[in-house]
């Protein structure tokens, strides 16, 4: 008995230091690099993705968020700050400017993105199936859906309706989206023009000008600053009587007319899952870039009625969400 007690004591003495080291293991930190402002983003789906992988902020995970407040020039310093803190993963959201800033700051810390441009064409990954390097994420297809949005406006509005496209010239995606929208318009036989806005005052001025011209319709290009100002867009579109189509359903739930695009909630949840998988030991280089399988069309019948638009049954039949 004494010998057994002695051996048990030795085993306990060996185990306790191991348990103590496990308990002292530092909490992993995810760095979240976001071009927008805190008031404009909901990260519930992102946190759900992390939860699906067993990570809960405040329990076994910390998240350090850095906001650029819609100023892309701040992104390089914010990314460098996250690298200096030695976060385990950088999550870059709100456009390819955030991803580029993160990648310029580190080629070793894994980076998970969620944005709309083709990551292969942007030179961020080697291929969709085998990204290589330290970057992977969710491609929202935003730049590829301009044709569908133009088609929906053609179905919704009278023939020969001209459409104005609003872009943010500070968004690097604008240089990609403009020629693609022009090609799509030519294919559809649709007349389009472009206007630019990078601030709240310029958005006001654009709508005032379009109202004076009695512009027929507006396509709001995807942009994190525009999404943050969705309340302003909805209010101005109603005031000036301009039908507008957006990329995210969040505009429509705020009172906008119609939207078509990949689900942001699905994208952010997948980004959270990928961040969790990397924390568990998988490599960004081996995680294929996720592509959307679900696209949402939302329409607000109250907004349509206020604009004097009788929504055709064929458009209603396409809608995933109808707000009455």
Mean pLDDT: 89
The radius of gyration computed from the alpha-carbon positions, rounded to a whole number of angstroms, is 24 Å
- Please bin the fraction of helical residues: 40-55%
How many beta-strand segments? 12
The main pleated sheet reads as: 7 strands, mixed
Quick recap of the structure?
The chain is α/β, with parallel strands linked by helices.
Question: What labels would you give this structure?
Answer:
324 residues; alpha/beta; 7-stranded mixed beta sheet; 5-stranded parallel beta sheet; 44% helix
Description:
The protein has 324 residues and is of the alpha/beta class. The chain contains 13 helices and 12 strands. The protein has helices spanning 2-23, 44-52, 75-84, 96-105, 146-156, 173-188, 200-213, 224-228, 230-240, 249-253, 264-279, 301-306, 313-318; strands spanning 29-34, 62-67, 89-93, 111-115, 135-139, 163-167, 192-196, 217-220, 244-246, 258-262, 295-300, 321-323. The strands form 2 sheets. It has a 7-stranded mixed β-sheet with strand order 7-6-8-9-10-11-12, sandwiched between helices. Strands 2-1-3-4-5 form a 5-stranded parallel β-sheet, with helices on both faces. Helix 2 links the parallel strand 1 and strand 2 (62-67). Helix 3 (75-84) crosses helix 4, helix 5 (146-156) packs across helix 6 and helix 7 packs parallel to helix 9. The N and C termini lie far apart (79 Å).
What's the arrangement of secondary structure elements?
Blueprint: H1 2-23, E1 29-34, H2 44-52, E2 62-67, H3 75-84, E3 89-93, H4 96-105, E4 111-115, E5 135-139, H5 146-156, E6 163-167, H6 173-188, E7 192-196, H7 200-213, E8 217-220, H8 224-228, H9 230-240, E9 244-246, H10 249-253, E10 258-262, H11 264-279, E11 295-300, H12 301-306, H13 313-318, E12 321-323
Parallel strand pairs: 1-2, 1-3, 3-4, 4-5, 6-7, 6-8, 8-9, 9-10, 11-12
Antiparallel strand pairs: 10-11
């Amino acid at each position: 008995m004494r010998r057994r007690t002695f051996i048990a004591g030795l085993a306990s003495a060996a185990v306790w230091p191991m348990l103590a080291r496990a308990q002292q293991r530092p909490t992993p930190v995810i760095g979240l690099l976001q071009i927008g402002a805190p008031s404009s983003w909901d990260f519930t789906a992102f946190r759900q993705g992390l939860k699906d992988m067993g990570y809960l902020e405040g329990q076994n995970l910390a998240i350090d968020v850095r906001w650029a407040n819609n100023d892309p020039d701040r992104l390089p310093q914010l990314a460098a700050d996250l690298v200096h803190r030695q976060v385990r993963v950088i999550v870059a959201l709100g456009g390819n400017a955030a991803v580029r800033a993160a990648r310029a700051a580190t080629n070793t810390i894994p980076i998970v993105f969620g944005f709309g441009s083709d990551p292969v064409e942007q030179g961020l990954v080697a291929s969709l199936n085998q990204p290589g390097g330290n970057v992977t994420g969710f491609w929202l297809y935003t730049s590829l859906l301009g044709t569908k949005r133009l088609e929906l406006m053609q179905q919704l509005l009278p023939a020969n309706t001209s459409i104005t496209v609003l872009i943010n010239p500070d968004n690097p995606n604008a240089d990609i989206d403009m020629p693609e929208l022009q090609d799509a318009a030519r294919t559809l036989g649709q007349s389009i023009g472009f206007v630019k806005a990078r601030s709240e005052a310029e958005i006001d001025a654009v709508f005032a000008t379009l109202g004076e011209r009695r512009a027929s319709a507006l396509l709001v290009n995807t942009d994190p600053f525009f999404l943050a100002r969705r309340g302003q867009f909805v209010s101005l579109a109603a005031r000036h009587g301009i039908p507008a189509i957006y990329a995210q359903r969040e505009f429509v739930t705020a009172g906008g007319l119609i939207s078509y695009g990949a689900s942001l909630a699905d994208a952010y949840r997948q980004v959270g899952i990928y961040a969790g998988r990397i924390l568990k030991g998988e490599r960004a280089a081996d995680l294929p870039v996720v592509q959307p399988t679900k696209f949402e069309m939302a329409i607000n019948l109250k907004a349509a009625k206020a604009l004097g638009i009788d929504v055709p049954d064929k458009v209603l039949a396409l809608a995933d969400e109808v707000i009455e």
